Fold this sequence. Notes:
By secondary structure, the chain is α+β, with helices and mostly antiparallel strands. 19% of the residues lie in helices and 54% in strands. It has one domain.
Amino acid sequence: xxxxxxxxxxxxxxxxxxxxxxxxxxxxxxxxxxxxxxxxxxxxxxxxxxxxxxxxxxxxxxxxxxxxxxxxxxxxxxxxxxxxxxxxxxxxxxxxxxxxxxxxxxxxxxxxxxxxxxxxxxxxxxxxxxxxxxxxxxxxxxxxxxxxxxxxxxxx
Length: 156
């Protein structure tokens, strides 16, 4: 799943605050909460990311399963890159060779707060709930809400 491009849909975006207590002092951090869904991810990619998730999905009986909630994936310092796939996104881009080189949006230090896998017609459907720090502009997320995007996770 890391360093591989997949297709998905941004189904919801919201803004919120996380409160942390560090050395007895409460600090607040602004975050964007994002739901990203994809059925483009295969078992091999998931196995590279987390082998226990992949083996659980492959060993569930009886098939098809309804849904499995894997909860918080405590992977720190993950980056995510987004590319729009609509026609207007293509017009803003030089060539398809530029696609991988220059993402339309990039977010650092994201957290996978929840990973749920549904089964739709024997195809796993991954639902990521991500938290993105409010360090960068989220215009891309809101402008591509309910539309198809390409995305790639990367270790920072």
